[in-house]
Design brief:
The chain is α+β, with helices and mostly antiparallel strands. The protein is about 50% helix and about 15% strand. β1 (about 35-40) and β2 form a beta hairpin. α7 runs antiparallel to α8, α7 (about 185-205) runs parallel beside α9 and α9 (about 250-315) packs antiparallel against α10. The longest helix has about 70 residues, at about 250-315. The protein starts with 6 loop residues before the first helix and ends in a 26-residue tail after the last helix.
Length: about 375
């Protein structure tokens, strides 16, 4: 069986910057793809959507719309990141966390800019985690993703494109809430897939326990650990956003963030439940293997027990005694029906043993169910009347 590896287990876990480098140093991962910039600028009655080839093209949109959403897919161009940081006054320490994609989910305040880190998940052939970083300003939201392609933000884009939605009337804080809500809600279908896998593994272990099922259970448990590491800090960050006064998030938006916080708590509960199920499945596998071994040993023991008296009979009549020397030297050897009587004795002994085992419930089911080897003697005390 091929072991599956999550993308998060293969990602770089150490910072890209060299030890002792100045704070805010941006070091680009050479494997990161080139950034693609997508822009959504909108207000209640205005909307512009386009792809931007150069960061300089963003200047004509800054300040002309109530909300400007700049989504950057890919972190492979240092000049683009530096230009965006200068254009929107993004703090160097936050930009360093953007390019080092091993951050915990968190929320930081840098003046009038709020910096958020979260993680998107999806399930294809294996679990994939992707860091998404967001800057929320007075009239803009800038999101950075590790690589172009899939993300879970398309429902938010569709809501922005439609004129009759609350997101078109609200500010950048509500847009950031919508993005976080989409990221957190996408954990549920992933966990649902894990639930279905665990049900299948449970049936497989009950019917045909093998090492392949145990290896897959171990893979699921490891992937759930990665999900837990991703969502647990997210709950703490959401709690800070709900409890504290965060710039660009008004009280009404923080009320909506409570719902995202509740979803994160539910996700953590599901992850812990599935991890316990994985442990139970490991115990179930060991119990199934033990029961299977017990059944095998039971059959072998019955066979061995049946052959013990037969071996004794065959051993007695296999002794080399001469009946001509003495009338006590196995006179049965001269019987006309000696051989059929010996075989019949063996058959009768075997049947008697099988009947005894059956009545005790050691094989099959006896008439009164399983009986103890040494049944207890009746008590001399009279029963208590109620």
């Amino acid at each position: 069986m091929t072991r599956r590896k999550t993308r998060s287990s293969r990602r770089r876990l150490k910072p890209l910057t060299a030890p002792g480098a100045p704070p805010g140093t941006l070091t680009i991962d050479p494997d990161s793809p080139a950034p693609a910039i997508h822009v959504l600028a909108y207000g209640k009655d205005a909307f512009v959507e386009k792809n931007v080839a150069r960061t300089a093209d963003l200047r004509e949109l800054i300040g002309k719309f109530p909300v400007l959403w700049v989504n950057v897919d890919g972190l492979g161009d240092l000049s683009v990141l530096v230009q965006l940081a200068e254009m929107f006054d993004l703090h160097p320490l936050a930009m360093e966390d953007v390019v080092n994609v091993h951050q915990r989910a968190k929320v930081d305040q840098f003046g009038s800019r709020t910096f958020l880190v979260s993680h998107m998940v999806r399930m294809e052939e294996s679990l994939e985690l992707e860091q998404i970083s967001m800057f929320v300003g007075p009239n803009f939201v800038i999101s950075f993703q590790e690589r172009p392609g899939w993300d879970c933000l398309e429902p938010v884009r569709e809501r922005v494109r439609k004129c009759v939605t609350r997101v078109r009337e609200a500010g950048p804080g509500y847009l950031a809430y919508s993005l976080l809500d989409a990221v957190v809600d996408h954990y549920f279908p992933v966990l649902e897939a894990y639930g279905e896998r665990l049900e299948t593994l449970e049936d497989q272990i009950l019917l045909h326990p093998d090492r392949g099922a145990v290896a897959e259970v171990h893979d699921v448990k490891r992937e759930l650990l990665n999900v837990r590491r991703s969502i647990w800090p997210q709950r703490e960050a959401l709690n800070v956003m709900v409890r504290d006064d965060i710039a660009n998030f008004d009280p009404e938006t923080r009320l909506y963030l409570r719902d995202v916080y509740d979803h994160a708590v539910r996700i953590i509960d599901l992850v812990e439940t599935y991890r316990e199920i994985c442990s139970d499945l490991m115990d179930l596998y060991l119990s199934s293997v033990s029961n299977r071994m017990n059944e095998v040993m039971k059959v072998l023991t019955v066979i061995s027990t049946l052959f013990i008296p037969l071996t004794f009979i065959a051993g007695v009549y296999g002794m080399n005694f001469d009946p001509d020397s003495s009338p006590w030297n196995m006179p049965e050897v001269r019987w006309y029906l000696g051989y059929p009587l010996c075989v019949g004795l063996m058959v009768v002994v075997s049947i008697a043993q099988l009947y005894f085992f059956y009545k005790r419930g050691w094989i099959g089911r006896g008439k009164w169910g399983a009986q103890p080897l040494f049944p207890p003697t009746p008590s001399s005390n009279p029963p208590v009347s109620r």
